[in-house]
Amino acid sequence: MARIALYKDNYADSTVVSNLFIDEYMKDANDAQLKVYFYLLRMLNADQAISVSGIADKFNHTEKDVIRALKYWEKQQILDLDFDENKALVGIHLRDLSAQATPAPQHNVLLTSGPVQAQNTAGASVISAAVTQPVQTALPETVSAYTKPAYSLDQLREFKEREETSQLLFIAEAYIGKPLTPSEIKTILFFTDVLHFSDDLIDYLLQYCVERGKKDFKYIEKVAVNWAEEGITTPKQAQKFSTRYDKSVYSIMSSLGRNTAPTAKELEFINRWTREYGFSTDIILEACERSSLATDRHRFEYAEGILSSWKNAGIHHKADIQQADATYQKKKAAKPAPVASSNRFTQFAQNSYDFAALEKEILSN
User: Fold this and answer.
1) 35-57 per-position pLDDT tens digit
2) CA 235 centroid distance within chain
3) Statement: the pTM of the whole predicted model exceeds 0.70
4) Residue 314 belongs to a domain
5) 23 plus 101 within the same structural domain
6) Same structural domain for residues 226 and 120?
7) How far is it, in rounded angstroms, from Cα 200 to Cα 211?
8) Pairing mode of beta strands 16-18, 108-110
């Protein structure tokens, strides 16, 4: 999923939470909603990019949980969500809650230690003009139809004694890397008993989560419920849904001139760039754009060559790319000019080629 610009109306060097938030909003919010809001406050002054997937990973939630929490706070009118023309989330605007409070002395509760700087209130008049509607009362979040029952020990024992269950539990333990606890076995029972997942779908579910570094059964359960709500019943449907939901995959595909779902080989490239190399989407898109300009064929291989070289060069941000380009141009300019020849057959305009790029293209054919 694309990186998101996070901004608000005033800034401080510490993480603070308004008394109005504690008094009016905190009591009706659930655990996920509070975590997301406090994390947004924390990241405002961290000078780091955020993403929905990053927030989900931070708290072992699904991306759908994060989106649901953001939309909840938008309904409460304490933040605004910015979307691009493709309806992708690109910005989060945290409103100044002091503009909604009654005129009274306000005090802030510090969430982190450190020196407190004065708030910048340069945008206060803009905020006052923007907040014109009364604050809505908190709406209860929709309760999922898929709630895990409180299984008894007899039910758990009966499940473990089923002939088809032993192989499923063995597979689960192989993915998780340890014997399953009774609570985790109950979760597997929930997948079969309530969600009606087949053994193949449970196998793919565990593989999907473990490949993303998630072995926590709370996270696995959230993903399973998400799939059930989407009507997913087969591994093929789950794979298609997971790929479709990750909009960054399609951004990369589009930048490389593809308008279809990625093939297994193309998805392997993308997963390597994001997981093994650890590049953010904006860096990958930069490499893809350069690949598209350089060649009409084997663009994935060309982008792989660029990103692999950037990884070896220790590039982590787009500013690093600019610096590497500048260094390359300096080295290129420092090379001595070729000596002019008196041979009349060499008196023509010389073309300037990027032989390294050409070599990569030739090798990829």
Assistant:
1) 999 988 888 766 666 888 889 88
2) 22
3) no
4) yes
5) yes
6) no
7) 16
8) antiparallel
